[in-house]
Amino acid sequence: MTISPLQKARYEYSPKLPGMLRSGISEITVKTGAPTQSVADQEVIAKLFPNTYGEPEITFEAGEAKDVTPTKKTVGVILSGGQAPGGHNVISGLYDALKALNPENTLIGFKGGPSGLIEDDFVVFDDPFINEYRNTGGFDIIGSGRTKLETEEQFAIAAEVAKKHGIDAIVIIGGDDSNTNAAVLAEYFAAHNTGVQVIGAPKTIDGDLKNEDIETSFGFDTATKTYSELIGNIERDANSAKKYWHFIKVMGRSASHVALECALETQPNICLISEEVAAKKMSLAQIANYIADAVEKRAANGDNFGVAIIPEGVVEFVPEFSKLIAEINELLAGAKADEFNALPTWADKYAFIEKGLTPESMDVFKILPTGIQQQLFLERDPHGNVQVSLIESEKLFSALVADELARRKEAGTYTGKFSPLHHFFGYEGRCAFPSNFDADYCYSLGYNAALLIENGFNGYLSKISNLSRPAEEWVAGGMPITKMMNIERRHGEDKPVIRKALVELDGKPFKFFEANRDNWAVETAYTFPGAIQYYGPAEVCDLTTRTLALEKGE
Ligand code: FBP
């Protein structure tokens, strides 16, 4: 395999551990905190998790060295969901700690996500294998997948596979859903006396697995730095050529943390925040007007260019649009989809749609560009629903803004030029070489997971906190996953789930953005973060996100 000079150099990088994990591994001891309660719905959740609920938070600290070698263990690891930079380091940290505890410990990786466990498809790691993936991006070490581990039948198979290999613990690296399922699996294993422990690690570039215990999910730092570099480059191009408005959609299926962080890093003219759109019940026309106002004001200064960041999930937060989507899902439910698909022309289909939608939804549908209208009827998910993430919202908003500007031109209030260009940044950031922050954080999460296993914990999330400070001051420990749960309605049923963290409109990152955005909209106040730096002074290389710094008041 040919490797790049950077990859070679990154193999040699030693990730920084929290100070308390730097002493010999046999000296690390557990400090037990108070018993925990779930964030809401305590009684119901306690009943659902009788064996794993209410356990205490724990932290690690340096203590007396123990001179007995811990008993030999076999641990399985799974990567679950979308790729996020740093996954390889969670695995290498886990591997190194297991080997440091007992060189005969074995780490096996289940391939292709949670389905690898059910299908008993795995690899056994050794030094040469792990060494090829240290400090690299991607999940290709074992692959990932979106199969959910949630049924009793799957759990029973998982228990059998674990028994077959003599597995003592399984580490699940995933987002809010995967860690919710990790907690349910942990409870199942405990209830059935399997002796198998389950430990989670908080992953997702979306940044929405975050709460009073988990300061950030891994991958958010690197992904947002990668997008911000590209957005900064585009801003500089825009300010050089002075002829295009760039509409840039960034990933983030539900929450707008990625968009907000990129805005804080690059100070674009516009950044939509889905949570604000929902709170203000904004219509498509209001959003288009808001952007058109900035275009018009900048044009009055002779600046016929700009940059607008659009979060991936925004359309779902526009009330009239989500109503339209719900009606379309209804319109095409069951056999009606075949009837619709058999219609020969778009005009026939349009007539079918017009007949089926309420007049209000039809009014919304009518203002959409034809391309977007057709996208709403193309791709369906396995449940038969419109896949909102496939809607090119960057094109939708630029088209609506163009229409609005045409109206203003006719009215004689706007005389500028508007040439939009479109971009979507998502996959570009999910497998980047992890920043030093993510490399260190992930390695620590994995190392810490091994210590949680060694100390017999089950249903815990590997927790590293105090992350806005240098790694030396980070705090390592674990939190019962049930502590982060509440009951939510999902697919018509009440379910215990980890609450997804949306952007808080009274939180410091949004408040900072809000206080500055009117100025950024009209002035050209761009900032250029540049590429992620892996070597050099700590104030350049170890910087975390603006979101985390603002949240921590730094
Ligand atoms: P996770 O929630 O699994 O971490 O994935 C997040 C994400 O990157 C979203 O930002 C994006 O909408 C989605 O994955 C894309 O998924 P896919 O890789 O299946 O296209």
Strand content: 15-25%
Which structural class fits the helix and strand makeup? alpha/beta
Number of helices: 23
User: Within the largest sheet, what's the order of strands?
Assistant: 1-2-13-12-7-6-3-4-5
Characterization of this structure:
This protein is an alpha/beta fold. It has helices spanning 5-11, 42-48, 87-101, 115-118, 127-131, 152-165, 176-191, 220-241, 257-266, 274-279, 284-300, 314-317, 319-331, 336-342, 346-356, 359-367, 370-378, 393-411, 427-430, 436-454, 508-522, 538-541, 546-551, and strands at 28-35, 56-62, 74-79, 106-110, 122-124, 169-174, 197-202, 245-250, 270-271, 306-311, 420-425, 460-465, 475-480, 485-490, 493-498. The chain contains 23 helices and 15 strands. Strands 1-2-13-12-7-6-3-4-5 form a 9-stranded mixed β-sheet, with helices on both faces. The protein has a 4-stranded parallel β-sheet with strand order 9-10-8-11, with helices on both faces. Strand 6 (169-174), helix 7 (176-191) and strand 7 (197-202) form a beta-alpha-beta unit. Helix 9 (257-266) packs across helix 21 (508-522) and helix 13 (319-331) crosses helix 16 (359-367). The radius of gyration is 25 Å and the shape is globular. Bound molecules: 1,6-di-O-phosphono-beta-D-fructofuranose. Residues 81-82, 84, 175, 204-206, 251-253, 312, 389, 430 line the site of 1,6-di-O-phosphono-beta-D-fructofuranose.
